[in-house]
Design goal:
mainly alpha, two-stranded antiparallel sheet, CF(0), transmembrane, ATP_synth_F0_asu_AS, 4 strands, cell membrane, ATP_syn_F0_a_bact/chloroplast, two-stranded antiparallel ribbon
Length: 240
């Protein structure tokens, strides 16, 4: 692709600190969309749900199933809001750049915010920090610390390394899939403007790739949420 993301260079006078304006914009838009969706779903609640309320209740039950598969529900029910937020937010963020791409001049403004590694790694780091927080909160610091030397003490360095690898793999997996999807979609779009016959031919692969990208966006949101609950269960459960 011939366009670049808008950056604020040397933020706060720090030479290596760049600020991506399009990622910030799309993160805000994703948050607004999720807020609107949840607000609409919570309006005029009925005992016999229909339409959009019925769909959102299915999503809630789906997240309950994820939590129930990874830990005891009595322990995991507190993580329902976290899982629901991650699933909906990441899915919406994933598909924004699939629906359309906004380019002004040679500057890319409208894209999936999850195609930026800064956002995905920030999400994964936040998740890992939360697992440690709830691990200490549920078990107490002493019992929580003992998990790092179980079943044998020499595993301590490997378990510390595991925390960093979990952060990297969780964030980079999401980033890689969404970024690659946007790159290929951009190449197909660029091909469509070469000549009229190619424009007609490129419609089919573009529609096919958009459908596949929607599927990938949903799968990646599910994987991120599932792994979040798996990591959480390792910290808060005694019988993992």
């Amino acid at each position: 692709m011939d366009h670049e993301s808008p950056l604020l260079h040397d933020l706060f006078g720090i030479p290596w600190l760049d600020f991506n304006l399009s990622t910030t914009l799309m993160t805000f838009i994703s948050s607004v969309i999720v807020f609107i969706i949840c607000t609409l779903a919570a309006r005029n609640l009925q005992m016999k749900p229909t339409g959009f309320q019925n769909f959102m209740e299915w999503v809630v039950d789906f997240v309950k199933g994820i939590i129930g598969d990874t830990m005891d529900w009595k322990t995991g029910k507190v993580f329902l809001p976290l899982g629901l937020t991650l699933l909906v937010y990441i899915f919406i963020s994933n598909i924004l750049g699939v629906i359309t791409m906004g380019v002004w001049g040679h500057t890319l403004w409208w894209k999936s915010p999850t195609s930026d590694a800064t956002l995905t790694l920030s999400l994964s780091a936040l998740v890992i920090v939360l697992t440690h927080y709830y691990g200490v909160k549920v078990k107490g610091f002493k019992e929580y610390a003992k998990d790092y030397v179980r079943p044998v003490p020499f595993l301590l360095p490997f378990k510390i390394i595991e925390e960093f690898t979990n952060t990297l793999t969780l964030g980079l997996r999401l980033f890689g899939n969404i970024f690659a999807g946007e790159i290929l979609l951009g190449l197909i779009t660029k091909m469509a403007f070469i000549a009229a016959p190619i424009t007609f031919i490129s419609i089919i692969p573009m529609m096919a790739w958009q459908g596949f990208s929607l599927f990938i966006g949903a799968i990646q949101a599910f994987i991120f949420t599932m792994l979040t609950m798996v990591y959480m269960s390792h910290k808060v459960s005694s019988d993992h």
